[in-house]
Amino acid sequence: MNLLLLAPEEISDRSTARLLRSDRRAVHICQVLKLQPGDNLKVGVIGGNMGVARYEVASPDSLTFSLVLDQSPPPPLDLTLIVGLPRPKTMRRVIQSIAALGVKDLILLNTYKVEKSYWQSPWLQAETLHEQCLLGLEQAMDTAVPRIRQFKLFKPFVEDTLPEVLHHRSGWFAHPKAEHGIPSDAERLVLAIGPEGGFTPYEVGKLTEAGMQGFHLGPRILRVETVIPSLVGRLFL
Amino acid sequence: MNLLLLAPEEISDRSTARLLRSDRRAVHICQVLKLQPGDNLKVGVIGGNMGVARYEVASPDSLTFSLVLDQSPPPPLDLTLIVGLPRPKTMRRVIQSIAALGVKDLILLNTYKVEKSYWQSPWLQAETLHEQCLLGLEQAMDTAVPRIRQFKLFKPFVEDTLPEVLHHRSGWFAHPKAEHGIPSDAERLVLAIGPEGGFTPYEVGKLTEAGMQGFHLGPRILRVETVIPSLVGRLFL
Fold first, then answer.
1. Same structural domain for residues B63 and B39?
2. Residues B139 and B209 in one domain
3. Whole-prediction pTM
4. CB-based burial, B93-112: b 16+ in 10 Å, e otherwise
5. Residue range A151-177, pLDDT digits in tens
6. Among the four A83, A164, A195, B57, which has the fewest Cβ within 10 Å?
7. Are residues A119 and A231 in the same domain?
8. B92, B172, B180, B221, best to mutate vs chain A, most A CBs in 10 Å
9. Interface pTM, i.e. ipTM
């Protein structure tokens, strides 16, 4: 936790916040960061500014902070990321990592090679996804929560939603057999990454029909949790 | 497992390999890939060539393959990566991911902010590290096992070993306060990434004294398991 991330409703009079001692963030501040009254830490408001929180008062049941919120969060990536739904055991890490990397628009998509049971994962509940995003933002020091959408049907997504996603944007899907390398332009980008095993020829056809182009990542086949930071690093770092 | 990776001693007459049915790879071939005699799969020899294995014979206790090994593995990255020893629970993923990304020279380093207990991790045993490397290579389709060295003392490493590591190479360490951005040249590179919390001022001084330069990664603070693929993507993809 490099940033104390507060919900707007946790702030009173625009400059004071109080955390119960049982709150996860308060526990971290006391037990890991070992801060004392008088110490400062970085703070941010979900969806808003960042700045400095001064730890003012420690009472038996809470910690009180005074806030100066005068800094903008880092700029968002100009990217919509479409990902074949990852295995449940990697979901937590994938969500935290996309939030940390600055991805603000994520689409979790069903494809032929996504195991149907993955859609039952408790990690897909809105509240859980939101929590994982907050952990990523606290790590990276950012306040803007990614929008995450889930599409459980490939064809209706590609036919009805994708055209709108691609509007005035350049769309690319990762495909080992594509001839084109990684796109060089990092503006107004839509990137689609298949599940393990990739997109089927039918899916490649549908994505192409919708106006997307294939690109390959070189000779190595990387897991989705490695591909995402590699591509973001390649395009946006 | 996208590649059946064999040890040289598992190959007889340069073109035949037999796996016991209890072998992890044989289980994967039968139960996940669901291959049958007559099917082909990608194969590689540790430290050697890649090619095609034809699944020839299934006996009650083993599978036999005939091999054509006429392809080179993907080119290695021209990079020595120095990493502050990661938390044990991320070690497995970090090792698999560096192997998958094509890093061939990894140095695990103690620094002030590495918890001393991390050095007790069973993940640091040579055999375990080797196994995790093989999993990464099987995923990425590569055969060259990374060299992994461990240095438990920062000062002797920097004074006695680092000069040799940096010989005719360009050395950089990640540091949020550095003014320089990510190096643009991906040749003969040495990159050092600190542990959570980064390098101390003393460590920054020692690395600088040894001839390395600091670089920053932008406004976001990323975990080591996210930084590594991001940087490799930025520099080598």
1. yes
2. yes
3. 0.94
4. bbbbbbbbbbbbbbbbbbbe
5. 999 999 999 999 999 999 999 999 999
6. A164
7. yes
8. B221
9. 0.94
